Amino acid sequence: NVWNDERSVHILASAAASPNSSVAARALRFFLNIEEAMALDQKASEESSWAGSEWIDLHLHSKKTKAKSRLILKQIKNRMKVQHERDGILEAERVDKGVEASKKLFPAIELLHDPQGICETLLKRIK
Length: 127
Description:
This protein is mostly helical. 77% of the residues lie in helices and 0% in strands. The radius of gyration is 23 Å and the shape is elongated.
C-alpha cells in the first residue's frame, strides 16, 4: 500500500509542517483519517468475498441429480465457512488489544522517525 510506505509518510510529515495552511490541513487529515480509509478498504474486500459466497444455486427448476446435490452441499458448506470466518473477524475486532490496536489504527505515525518532534513543531505553529 502506498500510504504505508515510509517515504510517502515522511513527505506528508514535511507537508504537515508547511506554511501553507491548506497543505498542512490535508496532511494532518491524512495522519488522522488513514485508519478509516484502511478500514473501508478492508470492509469492501470482505464484502466482495462475502457476496461471492452468498448466492447458492439450489437447482429448483432443473433435474435433481447426485452431482448437483453434491454441488449444492459444497456451496452451502463453503458459505457456512465464510460466514464463520466473518463472524470470527467481527468478534476479533470487538476485543481491545491496547497498544497493538493503536498501532493498527495509526500505521503512518508508526513509520515516522520522530513523531514527537513533528507534534512539537505543529504545536509551536498553532501557538
